[in-house]
């Protein structure tokens, strides 16, 4: 079981510390024969409460990751399409050339009155064109087959590469910013229906910063109470919210799977896992 952390609300208070009169401080220094006091003793025992600063977090744009991966797939499709269109253009050009030669032979034979020669020339050109057509159809079919095979094999690989890049971006941001989980929880709370009692499960390495920002999140979302629980199953930077109204899965691995499914909903794609950094 995870450790349940129940914390009272933090109260932000400001204390005014007066500046000591220079004359009085000088007199006290002259009269004292004991070693100099620490700065804390001179000011008093007033405790200044540190107010946590808002995290500056570069939010991962999941939609941009989907767009970039989709663009990569489209470029691959366009490349295959250009190859196929090039084959069609070549076929059309050669056929036009064959027709022109056929017509030229027929016209020359008519001018010279050689019907037999005309028929022979036309038959020769027709045979060559038929042979050429068969060859071109074979090339086009092969290109089309290669294109389909390329897209079938390349698409999962391109998606895998795009997701691998996005995973590295996310984990790099998590490793550089301890407050990443705060933004994850903040976003997940906007999807929570319940407002009275919510349990937030986070990775143990994210527990300290979540304790620090819990009351701020409570106040911002008008929640009654947010309970924090350490859970090794949650990847660092991610979270799972539980309440009577349901569960919000905001684990990093889950979000990467959603990106993958949006790109290519295929069971053949490798499973994306996000381990705690």
TrEMBL record:
<dbReference type="GO" id="GO:0044781">
    <property type="term" value="P:bacterial-type flagellum organization"/>
</dbReference>
<comment type="function">
    <text>Needed for flagellar regrowth and assembly.</text>
</comment>
<dbReference type="GO" id="GO:0015031">
    <property type="term" value="P:protein transport"/>
</dbReference>
<keyword id="KW-0966">Cell projection</keyword>
<keyword id="KW-0813">Transport</keyword>
<keyword id="KW-0653">Protein transport</keyword>
<feature type="domain" description="Flagellar assembly protein FliH/Type III secretion system HrpE">
    <location>
        <begin position="136"/>
        <end position="258"/>
    </location>
</feature>
<keyword id="KW-1006">Bacterial flagellum protein export</keyword>
<dbReference type="InterPro" id="IPR051472">
    <property type="entry name" value="T3SS_Stator/FliH"/>
</dbReference>
<keyword id="KW-1005">Bacterial flagellum biogenesis</keyword>
<protein>
    <submittedName>
        <fullName>Putative flagellar biosynthesis protein FliH</fullName>
    </submittedName>
</protein>
<dbReference type="InterPro" id="IPR018035">
    <property type="entry name" value="Flagellar_FliH/T3SS_HrpE"/>
</dbReference>
<keyword id="KW-0969">Cilium</keyword>
<keyword id="KW-0282">Flagellum</keyword>
<comment type="similarity">
    <text>Belongs to the FliH family.</text>
</comment>
<dbReference type="GO" id="GO:0005829">
    <property type="term" value="C:cytosol"/>
</dbReference>
<dbReference type="Pfam" id="PF02108">
    <property type="entry name" value="FliH"/>
</dbReference>
């Amino acid at each position: 079981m995870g450790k349940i952390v129940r914390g009272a609300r933090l109260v932000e208070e400001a204390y005014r510390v007066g500046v000591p009169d220079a004359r009085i401080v000088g007199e006290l220094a002259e009269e004292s024969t004991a070693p100099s006091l620490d700065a804390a003793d001179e000011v008093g025992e007033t405790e200044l409460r540190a107010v946590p600063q808002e995290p500056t977090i570069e939010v991962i744009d999941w939609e941009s990751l989907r767009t970039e991966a989709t663009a990569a797939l489209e470029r691959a499709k366009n490349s295959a399409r250009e190859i196929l269109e090039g084959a069609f253009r070549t076929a059309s050009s050669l056929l036009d050339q064959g027709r022109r030669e056929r017509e030229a032979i027929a016209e020359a034979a008519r001018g010279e009155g050689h019907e037999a020669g005309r028929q022979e020339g036309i038959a020769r050109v027709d045979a060559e064109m038929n042979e050429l057509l068969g060859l071109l159809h074979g090339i086009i079919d092969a290109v089309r087959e290669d294109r389909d095979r390329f897209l079938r094999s390349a698409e999962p690989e391109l998606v895998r590469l795009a997701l691998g890049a996005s995973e590295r971006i996310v984990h790099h941001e998590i490793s550089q910013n301890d407050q990443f989980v705060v933004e994850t929880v903040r976003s997940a709370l906007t999807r929570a229906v319940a407002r009275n009692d919510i349990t937030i499960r986070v990775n143990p390495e994210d527990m300290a910063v979540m304790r620090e920002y819990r009351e701020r999140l409570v106040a911002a979302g008008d929640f009654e109470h947010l309970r924090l629980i350490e859970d090794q199953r949650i990847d660092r930077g991610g979270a799972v919210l539980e309440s009577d109204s349901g569960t919000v899965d905001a684990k990093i691995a889950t979000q990467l799977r959603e990106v993958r499914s949006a790109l290519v909903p295929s069971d053949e794609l490798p499973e994306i896992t996000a381990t705690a950094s």
